[in-house]
Amino acid sequence: MNSIEKLTALFERFPGIGPRQARRFVQFLLTTSPATRSELAESIKSLGNLTGQCKKCYRWFVKSTVNKLGLCDICVSNHRDAGIVFIVEKDADIDNVERSGFKGLYFVLGGTIPLAAEEPEKHIRARELSVRIDTDGTAKMLKEVILGLSATTEGDHTRSLLNERLQAPAEAFGFKISSLGRGLSTGSELEYADPDTISEALDNRH
Ligand SMILES: [Zn+2]
Q1: What's the CA angle centered on 56, arms 110 and 90, to 5 degrees?
Q2: Confidence (pTM)
Q3: SS3 13
Q4: How many angstroms separate the alpha carbon of residue 108 from the centre of ligand 1?
């Protein structure tokens, strides 16, 4: 495999990128300046050293904003309502929900559960979610858990499984489980919804 083929194959591993797009990325890199190539290579190389995953919500963030506990800027903020936990599928959803003005906290599930999954728990951070709910619940600070999953088949499936799973802790700790209301149309993903739509879906949560 020559260096062009190798880089093309690496780009093909990216989510949503096919061979043709991968080839276009390589073509762009071939025609760009050596300085740009170096900058990109350096950024990728240092990514692991500069970022960390929050121990509470599991989002990735730049380490300069981390405190000693390994928590992100949102989780340590005093200006957030720690009683509301918004469960999302992925990091990109948080960026978008933040633009809607939401002031609670988050938990990143890390995916959705496929319909025919034999071991549903393996597809999401099920154990980590239990720990989070138990910790917050025991601290008597949990008022509401919002299931902010996409309005897709897998999203719906994941929502109903989580809903079942959270019934017992919701009763034990006395918190409410809610889902986003109308506003998010069928098939839409949080990542691509505009902030006004998210804000409306949040206002209409039930
Ligand atoms: Zn966090």
Answers
A1: 20
A2: 0.82
A3: coil
A4: 9
